[in-house]
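Write out this protein's structure.
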Amino acid sequence: MNKIQKNSIRPLCYGAVFAVMTLCISLQGTVLAADQNKTGQTLFKSNCATCHSQNGTPTAVGKSLNALDLGSAPVQNKTNAQLEQIIGSGKGNMPAFKDKLSQAEIGSLVVYVHTLSKRNK
């Protein structure tokens, strides 16, 4: 009887461990996304807001340089790869940031830029 009890408890323990691990992994993804957005926001303030303001709309300086509204459809409809390319290599009057920012930082900026469409509405 003792062997039967041990064998019936073992699957329950494995199930509980699996459930806890799944919960931890899902929460970690939420924290990482929040950290990436926070990093993107911080990078945006220090590198982009002079021309694009805090909410992505062009400032007076940005308007003089023909900066786009980052919450607009033409910007928001670009893929992550396209936005990474523009941020890294620059475009028009916008300078390149690939020598100033890491690829991960550029990726964080892209994530943040995609949040600007919600702010402008």
